[in-house]
């Protein structure tokens, strides 16, 4: 088995190769100056001629030397001033998490490596070491007495979902190979090679954002030189990082090896639950200008539901009885709030600070303030687009009249043939997940002796229905579900036109929101920071765009839910894995998807009418819109 020292030696060898690339580039820049010095010295000593061709050679070499030195100075200044990429994170001071800092330092002592200089949290399921020694990443440092640069330990960045989902022992085992990486990071050659690569990356980013002829031309040259050097050092840098990772892994083998296997299993589970929480629960709120302020606490409920639904672990309850890692924080609620706001910025592009149009929402208020409002907004958009359609959609060439059997260009279809349904995507054909209720069971560790709740229960909306058939604004002729059903049933082209216009309407609203976000973040010319880490959010869009047919199905579902709430005593609810949910008699109805798809795809309203009859929804009654 290879020792950690072997991996460090391999990484140092590759680091020296990276530094040789830097040395060769410097030699090329100084070559004309060296030739000029030789020619001038030879002329002054009489060893070389002073007139004719020798004079021309001296002037030519001198001009090239000046130009080369100016260009080398330009590249050096841009590389030195450009701020390397800095991952967005929530800084965690030692006063806010003394137990966590103590755990990391004890782990570093056991591994015999330098302790990380600080700890930060990221709203993602990952952990890494990040070098933040650049002068732009922190307050000014005291001047060094010696010329040699003193190495500084990197910052440990921890995924915030791990703190709420994992137990203390599991987090310690998970961080062992990460903290072990501070040993190779302290090596001077490896640190210098990393600084060189990060500087080149930052210079390329600065050159890419340059605007204006006075800036673009010189910075474009810097960008080309930086890319050339990156290509020359790419393989050596990759092998250097591989050697550092191998050395850290070997050093951490003797620390909690059995628990590391369990921790890795929990990492996979955390990825699945975190993704569902972001795309199904947080995204609807973000689109309405609200951000859930307890995402990390919610991920515990989401993962608890996922574990129970998929039966991932038999000893699940006993595991949750151990101390959660978030108990290492002094104020978990404040940290969760900061991480939740950063998650909204990273995955949606929201503002950096709360405001009138960007306010937090708690889990207890989520059903009424997010779910109900989402349904009302989508139902209002559906009726607004429906009002803009002509009374009868014109049939295009190649389409049969409404109600006629589907035909092919070659031969007529049999009399009893039904119109062919459009091909559905995987997202629309997947059967709905069914389970009892929308209530996440609180584990035994939810109420820790320290008094810090871990997993909030899914809030239940009050079962106080509005008066059935209450007229909407505008009188008895308000919007009704029956109107939508009749139009999609009796007009063969209405579904296609509605889907297309809904897609255009949603796209227009998203463009306007993107423009507002760009205006809030501001824009400018070239800067000395690494753009993607400081602006240009979101970095990680959580969900691909929905198709027009999926949008139509979502809007019809929203209209059905509004009618159920207004006429059948249903209520909006929250499912930790699927997001907005319709509650009937306190239990979630997960069987609405197929009847809606039957209406949208096939124009067949009978399954939906049967569902409405069983629930007690009166589609002819007006509903309240946003």
Describe this structure in words.
The protein is mainly alpha-helical and 626 residues long. The chain has 20 helices and 9 strands. It has helices spanning 4-45, 53-81, 98-111, 160-165, 168-179, 182-185, 188-208, 213-251, 257-286, 295-310, 316-320, 332-348, 366-388, 426-429, 481-490, 494-521, 531-534, 548-567, 593-602, 606-615; strands spanning 90-92, 118-122, 128-130, 155-159, 290-292, 359-361, 571-575, 579-584, 587-588. A 4-stranded mixed beta sheet has the order 1-2-4-3. It has a 3-stranded antiparallel beta sheet with strand order 7-8-9. The longest helix has 42 residues, at 4-45. The radius of gyration is 32 Å and the shape is flat. 37% of the residues are buried. Mean pLDDT is 80; it is low at 142-147, 395-437, 439-455, 461-476 and 522-535.
Distinctive features:
626 residues, mainly alpha, 4-stranded mixed β-sheet, 20 helices, flat
Q: Report the C-alpha radius of gyration, rounded.
A: 32 Å
Distance between the termini: 66 Å
The total beta strand count reads 9
Helix/strand order: HHEHEEEHHHHHHEHHHEHHHHHHEEEHH
Let me know the largest β-sheet: 4 strands, mixed
Q: What proportion strand? A: 5-15%
- The total count of helices amounts to 20
Oligomeric assembly = single chain
The helical percent reads 40-55%
- Overall residue-averaged pLDDT value: 80
Helix/strand class: mainly alpha
Shape: flat
User: If strands are numbered along the chain, what order do they take across the biggest sheet?
Assistant: 1-2-4-3
């Amino acid at each position: 088995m290879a020792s950690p020292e072997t991996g460090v030696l391999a990484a140092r060898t590759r680091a020296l190769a990276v530094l040789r690339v830097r040395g060769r580039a410097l030699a090329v820049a100084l070559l004309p100056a060296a030739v000029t010095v030789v020619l001038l010295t030879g002329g002054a000593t009489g060893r070389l001629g002073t007139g004719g061709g020798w004079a021309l050679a001296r002037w030519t070499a001198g001009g090239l030397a000046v130009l080369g030195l100016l260009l080398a100075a330009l590249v050096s200044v841009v590389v030195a001033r450009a701020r390397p990429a800095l991952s967005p994170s929530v800084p965690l001071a030692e006063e806010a998490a003394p137990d966590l800092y103590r755990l990391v330092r004890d782990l570093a002592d056991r591994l015999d490596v330098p302790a990380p200089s600080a700890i930060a949290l990221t709203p993602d399921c990952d952990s890494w070491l990040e070098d933040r020694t650049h002068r732009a990443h922190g307050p000014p440092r005291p001047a060094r007495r010696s010329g040699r640069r003193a190495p500084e330990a990197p910052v440990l960045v921890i995924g915030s979902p791990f703190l709420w989902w994992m137990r203390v022992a599991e987090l310690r085992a998970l961080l062992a190979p990460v903290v072990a990486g501070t040993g190779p990071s302290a090596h001077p050659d490896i640190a210098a090679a990393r600084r060189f690569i990060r500087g080149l990356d930052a210079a390329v980013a600065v050159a890419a954002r340059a605007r204006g002829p006075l800036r673009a031309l010189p910075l474009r040259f810097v960008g080309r030189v930086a890319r050339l050097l990156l290509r020359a050092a790419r393989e050596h840098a990759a092998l250097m990082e591989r050697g550092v990772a191998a050395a850290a892994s070997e050093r951490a083998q003797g620390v909690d090896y059995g628990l590391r296997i369990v921790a890795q299993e929990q990492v996979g589970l955390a990825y699945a639950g975190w993704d569902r929480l972001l795309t199904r629960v947080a995204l609807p709120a973000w689109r309405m200008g609200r951000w859930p302020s307890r995402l990390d606490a919610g991920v515990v409920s989401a993962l608890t539901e996922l574990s129970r639904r998929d039966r991932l672990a038999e000893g699940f309850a006993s595991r949750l009885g151990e101390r959660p890692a978030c108990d290492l924080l002094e104020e978990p609620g404040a940290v969760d709030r900061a991480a939740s706001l950063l998650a909204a910025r990273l995955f949606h592009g929201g503002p950096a600070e709360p405001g009138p149009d960007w306010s937090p929402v708690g889990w207890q208020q989520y059903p009424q303030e997010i779910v109900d409002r989402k349904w009302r907004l989508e139902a209002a958009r559906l009726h607004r687009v429906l009002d803009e359609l002509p009374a009868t959609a014109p049939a295009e060439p190649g389409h049969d009249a409404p109600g006629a059997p589907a035909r092919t260009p070659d031969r007529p279809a049999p009399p009893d043939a039904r119109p062919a349904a459009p091909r559905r995507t995987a997202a629309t054909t997947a059967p709905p997940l069914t389970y009892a209720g929308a209530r996440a069971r609180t584990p035994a560790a939810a109420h820790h002796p320290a008094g810090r709740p871990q997993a909030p229960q899914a809030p239940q909306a009050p079962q106080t229905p509005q008066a059935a058939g209450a007229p909407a604004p505008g009188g008895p002729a308000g919007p009704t579900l029956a109107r939508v059903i009749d139009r999609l049933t009796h007009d063969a082209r209405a579904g296609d036109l509605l889907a297309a216009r809904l897609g255009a309407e949603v796209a227009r609203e998203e463009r306007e929101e993107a423009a507002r976000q760009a205006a809030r973040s501001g824009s400018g010319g070239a800067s000395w920071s690494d753009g993607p880490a400081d602006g240009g959010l979101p970095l990680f869009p959580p969900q691909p765009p929905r198709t027009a047919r999926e949008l139509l199905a979502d809007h019809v579902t929203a209209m059905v839910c509004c009618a159920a709430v207004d006429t059948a005593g249903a209520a909006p609810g929250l499912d930790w894995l699927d997001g907005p949910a319709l509650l009937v008699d306190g239990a979630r109805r997960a069987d609405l998807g197929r009847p809606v798809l039957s209406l949208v795809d096939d124009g067949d309203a009978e399954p939906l009418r049967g569902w409405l009859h069983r629930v007690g929804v009166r589609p002819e009654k007006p509903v309240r819109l946003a």
